[in-house]
Sequence to fold (287 residues):
Amino acid sequence: MAETRWTCETASLVFCWQTPGETSHVDLAREDVPNQVAQARTRTVLGTPTIYHSHLSVSRVIIQDEHRIGGTRGVKVMAPAVQLGRIGIWSGRFWAHREAAQDVARELEQLGYGAVWFNNGADAVGLARDLLGATSRIVVASGILNIWTHRAQDVAAGHAALAQTFPHRFLLGLGVSHAPQVDRDQAGRYSHPYERMVAYLDALDTAQPPVPAGERVLAALGPRMLALARERSAGAHPYLVTVEHTRSARQVLGDGPLLAPEQAVVLEPQPARARIHEQLAPAWLHA
Fold:
């Protein structure tokens, strides 16, 4: 088995997405990654930022066009309507520093990043509006909104408002989350997540105006949710998955749809320091 190797100085997590027709190999140390992200202003707000990249970095192994393995002939698939670029930043700290986050988003855009991602929160539309309003080009994406805590009607209305003011610059990421989080305030609420997502997408489709399938992605892990992402969204945004999962997910998605898996890693050349970082990571990273 090939060893997975990431090389970068400024990131603690790596988002990798695969665009059809591209080779799945990259060494971040040799890519034109804007290391200026470690500048004082950005580092103060975001801490150690999250970087996503358009390819898998597999040590000395090139996985050619793995999206072509298998096939989806005869299956209707969606293509993303939002162009995210090759490299972007994901951070949960945009929420804690709303005013400063606008300056950070502007700086990240100037540095050449394609998108900024933020995690679930109550005022997702407001945060997206702040970040979009502070910039002129960069895409803002939710990674992800929890469908149990955000009503589809409200999300559709918020999306419409953002799309009118900032066309093709907001990507709506949706997910069913996990039972412990969903049931925390209401035991037994987390039930039939796949059916819940289908109903949620139905509501987005029938809203006035609807949320276009090409402007939304699903946090899909299993084959049924991946197939749903292929057929009713721009693609999939898996979380904490292996390289093998990415390969199998591309088989389900086929050509065209976006595949944006998050790879959680500690990017530290010194093993002892890396173990300290690993021990300080949130408990869910050890699950």
Notes: Residues 1-33, 35-40, 48-74 have pLDDT under 50 and may be disordered. Residues 13-286 form a domain with the TIM Barrel fold (CATH 3.20.20). The CA atoms of residues 174 and 203 lie 13 Å apart. Residues 152-165 form the longest helix (14 residues).
